[in-house]
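Revision sheet: structure tokens.
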Amino acid sequence: MKKTLLINVLSLMTVFTLSACSNDATQESANSQSFVQESSEAVATSVEITDAHGTIDVPVNPETVVSLDSRTYATLEDWDISLAAAPKGVMPASSAYVSDESVQDIGNHREPNLEVLAATEPDLVIVGQRFGGYYDEIKELVPDAVVIDLNFDVSEDAQTPGENLVNGLKNATLSLGKIFDKTAEAESLTSELDQNIATAKEAYDGENAVLSVIVSGGNIGFSAPHSGRVWGPLYELLDWEPALEVDNTTSDHQGDEISVESIAQSNPDWIMVLDRDAAISSDGESVPAKDVIEQAPALQDTQAIQSQQVVFAPAETYTNESIETFIDLFGILADAFNQ
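Predicted:
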């Protein structure tokens, strides 16, 4: 009897020991797999993104960065990304990069000093919008750098400018999020953009006639539906009813030539205004777009002026067409339509 009891006890001890060993082995295996996974993630040094030319491997958190894309400065600044060089002449005056003397000035897109760019020996160059035409030249100039082109087409040739605008802003932001390890922040921005577009679209009544303009040098240019700078793609996005449509329009930075009388005759319910001078003038001599619109005698009897239904884009929009700017702009539109 005692012998049988002893055998049973020994058997149970063996079972417990084997079970413990098995559990230890399972835990060790799990820990090993977790370590391998973490190690794999830790050594990831590049990420694949899609730019205007296809898919490309980009270093994660590159050390030396140059950006030439006016749609990126606000995002990069908010994320505390350092730039080695940038085109300060076509950047918002309020940008921290402009006042930072350590950021080399490449000049503007008409006569850029690309030798300055090359001298920084960049790991990453972000091309887009105004500098898109220099893509091949820059690639040849800095063969050891990764050059990405975040440009997208919202010109007069685009079939779906509104859709292109939204997808372009979102894709560029998400790509930057991958590159600079800011995925959560990037997704938050794209979500906010979608939300503000939906709110602005819901707030518009679908009937009031809209006319959009660019004010530059005291002159009023026409920002045409679909093709016009900044405002054009919004006609498609928000289903705006155009107050005026003319032939052979463009995406010119000063808008298309149009007489104030033509604007008055179209009698818009809403006038949308981009103040170009507010973004590029620093001498204080430019005439604010608000004054130009309000002091134009021919416009005073229009429904928009009579009802005080004039909306101004954020002051630096012309040099800062970032996702943040459009988030603000759609919020401004929603507030205006809801008044």
